[in-house]
Amino acid sequence: LRFDEQVRVVVFRSQVKGVFCAGADLKERAQMDDAEVGHFVKRLRNLMDEIAALPVPTIAAIDGYALGGGLELALACDLRVAASSAKMGLIETTRGLLPGAGGTQRLPRVVGIGLAKELIFTGRQIDGEEALSMGLVNHTVPQNSEGDAAYQRALALAKEILPQAPFAVKMGKLAINRGMEVDIASGMAIEGMCYAQNIPTRDRQEGMAAFREKRPPRFVGK
Fold first, then answer.
1. DSSP letters along 24-50, please?
2. Does the annotation mark 181 as catalytic?
3. Catalytic, out of 69, 89, 102, 128
4. What is the rounded end-to-end Cα distance, in angstroms, of the chain?
5. Residue 114 annotated to the active site
6. Between these two residues, 210 and 113, which has the higher pLDDT value?
7. Which GO terms are recorded in the biological process aspect for this UniProt protein (predicted)?
8. Is the confidence at residue 196, as pLDDT, over 80?
9. Is 24 a catalytic residue?
10. Domain 10-162 is in which class?
11. Which residues pair with 87 in a beta bridge?
């Protein structure tokens, strides 16, 4: 996906009704020794980092349970949409564990330190409405009879992104992600570098021409 220039948005969904991702298989985990557990979690953390590093916008469509590593997968995405009935939580402390695939780092960056600590310390599960109220998800929708309401809303969100200039969107994502990790002066420099890369693009010229000619732009991602 990273190297496919035709890809403009990635939506993560589950084919299992009622479950986005239920996290690690604890029965499988129980058969591992300490070294194997450490290796497994390191690989899982690397996978989440790869998802977070995708250059295009990513959307998690949470139509059911997103627990433990399942919520960490959703947190690795740029945007999250949930059914109101979905259940989310970093439940690791209820099993003698702590989040190990990015949850302790990404959750506080999304909802703030206080709420992140509360959710991780208690292992509490919350529904889509609660997730929306704390900013964990961008949108919450009532579940439908097919069980894919969040996916349908995620598709609608993706369709809002699709017409925009692909390279500009990628640079916007890069500027936000890199800028959030540094002080604001450094962040401004990062924005300036990303903007400079966008200036010579054909899409920027097309955007200006379309505005002058009062027509929709035809972006090609170049």
1. --HHHHHTS-HHHHHHHHHHHHHHHHH
2. no
3. 69
4. 17
5. no
6. 113
7. fatty acid beta-oxidation
8. yes
9. yes
10. alpha beta
11. 127
Q: What is the DSSP letter of 66?
A: E
Q: Which residue in 64, 66, 68, 72 is the catalytic one?
A: 72
Instruction: Of 108, 116, 89, give the one whose Cα is nearest residue 21.
Output: 89
Under DSSP, is residue 81 helix (H, G, I), strand (E, B) or coil?
strand
- Residue for token digits 């349970």? 65
**Of these residues, 66, 82, 92, 103, which one is catalytic?**
92
What is the 3-class SS of 169-204, one letter each residue? Answer: HHHHHHHHHHHCCCCHHHHHHHHHHHHHHHCCCHHH
Mind listing the pLDDT tens digit for each residue in 52-77? 999 999 999 999 999 999 999 999 99
Q: 166-213 — its CATH code?
A: 1.10.12.10
Domain ranges of the chain: 10-162, 166-213
Active-site residue, selected from the candidate residues 22, 23, 24, 165: 24
Residue 33: the pLDDT is 86
Q: Is 92 a catalytic residue?
A: yes
For residue 11, what are the CA distances in angstroms to 69, 156, 188? 17, 11, 30
The structure's pTM equals 0.93
Strand order in the sheet with 65-67: 19-21, 65-67, 87-89, 126-127
**14 in helix, strand or coil?**
coil
